[in-house]
Amino acid sequence: MTVQESYAPVLASPYQRSVAEYWNHEKNPVNLRLGEVDGIYHHHYGIGDADWSVLEGPQETRDERIIAELHRLECAQADLLLNHLGNVSPDDHLLDSGSGRGGGSLVANQRFGCHIDGISISETQVAFANEQAEKRGVADKVRFHLKNMLDTGFDSGRFRAIWNNESTMYVDLSQLFPEYARMLRHGGRYVTITGCYNDTYGLPSRAVSEINAHYICDIHPRSSYFKEMARNRLVPAAVVDLTEATIPYWELRAQSPLATGIEKAFLTAYKDGSFQYLLIAADRV
């Protein structure tokens, strides 16, 4: 069976098929080596002040120190997102939309004890994440599905909270937020952490365009998030500019054995003001 045949019910366009192919074959050490630190595999960046002392000390353990510090910063980012989900009880259902290898879902379950559904269009990611849930003995509450976030098939009003962690740049926001508004119960919370280009800069800068090409994505302007949320009864409760907070992660990553070459573009775009790293939390009204 070809990928196109197996994904026919999930992927609605050639672009989505290309994204699925990318993540099905992705084995980037910057994602895998960090997850090996404690078995929590995130697929996002980090925030907070870096411990620059990791660059000092014995050369033979330098790489391990840097990797552990990068993982600490990405875990801090995940914790910040969870802090904005509001009051969550063990009986609640949450949706991790664009769940990657499952780290965010597992951390959410550890904190809240709740039910988590993770979704991805990557068959490889879904299989990996379900294996992690099994290993941790939480597969009864944390499950990962091969689903398209624009058309999930979940029941209306199912979720207390939904989040995206650096995954909205792969979809059309005018299609995404109606689906979220449908699935969230009244008073439910939506949270995203995302990179977006700064409307006041004009069109996407050269550095932002490099990021788009590297990840096969389409970074949205900041204004699109608020416009499409407003159209779908999602009212912002918090907006946090994390741009300055993420720069240390990228500066450290650029000096790490896991650098991929895209670090310069991120640092240039953040520092020239053309790119922003935002957390947006919104309530379904």
TrEMBL record:
Superkingdom of the source species: Bacteria
InterPro entries: Erg6_SMT_methyltransf, GPPMT_Stmyces, Methyltransf_11, SAM-dependent_MTases_sf
Swiss-Prot/TrEMBL GO biological process terms: methylation
Domain Methyltransferase type, first and last residues per copy: 95-191
Molecular function, one GO term: S-adenosyl-L-methionine binding
Keyword terms: Methyltransferase, Transferase
NCBIfam families, alphabetized: GPPMT_Stmyces
Name of the protein described by the UniProt record: Methyltransferase domain-containing protein
Lineage of the species this protein comes from: Bacteria, Bacillati, Actinomycetota, Actinomycetes, Kitasatosporales
